[in-house]
């Protein structure tokens, strides 16, 4: 078969086929077909209500899909099958740690829940504590810990029983920049050490950038699935952002005077242009002094890509202007 | 040739089994044990809970017991004072409060995400419910046993206590009450809502169990409510174990003193724990 070339990935570790889930007439996940390759970190990217969390809940075995199937390592499995559940480690948004237990006890609890016993359980607990860099704090109760440390312990707990797939729902929600970086450094290290495959949901553009591949979801449908770099290159040009007192009027004038497509995004005029640097002087010339309060040029981010793919802002990270309440259920 | 090679390849990379893959039953049992042990550890790490659990029944027994002592008289049982009469009722109350507390921890576990993580694991819903119910029962049993050390003060002689009956009644009552609490908890979203359920369902059930006043004295419809009350079998079982069959007949109602407490409580425990397991799996 000429098809089986180098670029075709091996059997996907996890394959979703036509996954659909409705809630009272609203389709939350709409025929989602997605393959997760062994060893990759795949991010489900989208704003609240895009269907990420529903997909996550279905994969976590907490919600039954209305239709569609899941194959794990080529075998079709029911999501409630203990054989499949054992192969998954799960990090929930709300966290699963017991505040009254120590870090070591929390990990041991996780290990035992998945059937590890005796020396093997102890070994795993100690090696996980060491891998997340918290070996010397294993006997502290986790109730007093910071958000970043708790998240790392969640990661260790999800991995303690040696799953092959780790599911994470908005794993870095609420973490500051430093804790976010630490979490991801540990995640990548664990991925290499343990040979796991990761599927996570996120609405953070910075988190999306560090995934190996992204599945972009909008209104329950998959709109794109590619590496962050490939997605960014779809934008083609640069992003020119102009701040001014009256963005709507300015956008119209930019369209008229310069013949480029300008739109208002979060209160600023935004232009996507292939030759961004050449546009800057034309733009500045075209308007009288004082009309523009700032002009900036940058490479497109995944937030821009998302906007282009779906016509919606990824939002939520950014103190959202008006569009956010409309998306609320 | 390429076709030949591809057919020779195994169709999929088989899921490599972990070195010591536990069987399904072993996984279920592990879930039960882990959850049970966790609740016991948590109990001892909350000093206020431990103190409250010990002090509250003693206070209740002394305060209410002595308050009613003067006015209380049971027909045909002149020897049985109110403090004696009330003692088995307080034992049941300890079991009930422990079950209520366990139920509140279920609501907390659900709110904080702990339960979600357990349910996403390989253990079944029944294993999760059993683990919680057994953990709560172990705590209840410890509390009740400590309170029972005061039994000599209630005129119980250690030599005549029917220990097998006492412990089977306590274990089964604890399981039944926790199961009942958990079945209710699943429909109630908040612990505030559960407090309402507690005061309109669970506490009246205790009051109408023969714990505070004999079933005989109540009106007709009320006495039927009392007859069908699961907690009644718990109170009567404890009373019979501590004071002998006559005491439970004297203060009782139809079916009192017939020795039916254990089978009836076993039935209630099975039904309520089963109901709790069904409610856990019925999720949005």
From TrEMBL, chain A:
The record's listing under PROSITE patterns reads:
ABC_TRANSPORTER_2
Question: Is Iron among this UniProt entry's keywords?
Answer: no
What keywords are assigned to this protein?
Answer: ATP-binding, Nodulation, Nucleotide-binding, Transport
Listed InterPro entries: AAA+_ATPase (IPR003593), ABC_transporter-like_ATP-bd (IPR003439), ABC_transporter_ATP-binding (IPR050763), P-loop_NTPase (IPR027417)
**Entry keyword ATP-binding:** yes
Q: Which SMART domains match?
A: AAA
> Where do the ABC transporter domain residues begin and end?
14-244
One Pfam family from the UniProt entry? ABC_tran
One MF term in the entry's GO annotations = ATP hydrolysis activity
**Family, per entry:** Belongs to the ABC transporter superfamily.
Q: What is this protein called?
A: ABC transporter ATP-binding protein
Taxonomic source organism? Myxococcus llanfairpwllgwyngyllgogerychwyrndrobwllllantysiliogogogochensis
Q: What is the lineage of its organism?
A: Bacteria, Pseudomonadati, Myxococcota, Myxococcia, Myxococcales
From TrEMBL, chain B:
- The residues that cross the membrane are 50-73, 85-107, 128-153, 165-188, 200-224, 262-280
Q: Does the keyword Oxidoreductase feature in the UniProt annotation? A: no
Task: Give the InterPro entries listed for this entry.
Answer: ABC2_TM, ABC2_TM_bact-type, ABC_2_transport, Nod_factor_ABC_transporter
Membrane topology is: Multi-pass membrane protein
What top-level branch of life does the organism fall under?
Answer: Bacteria
Q: Which UniProt keywords apply?
A: Cell membrane, Membrane, Transmembrane, Transmembrane helix, Transport
One Gene Ontology term of the molecular function aspect:
ABC-type transporter activity
Pfam families for the chain: ABC2_membrane
Q: Which residues form a coiled coil?
A: none
Outline the extent of the ABC transmembrane type-2 domain: 48-283
Predominant place of localization: membrane
Location(s), subcellular: Cell membrane; Membrane
Q: Which GO terms describe its cellular component?
A: ATP-binding cassette (ABC) transporter complex
Q: Which PANTHER family match?
A: NODULATION PROTEIN J
Which family does this protein fall into? Belongs to the ABC-2 integral membrane protein family.
Q: What is this protein called?
A: Transport permease protein
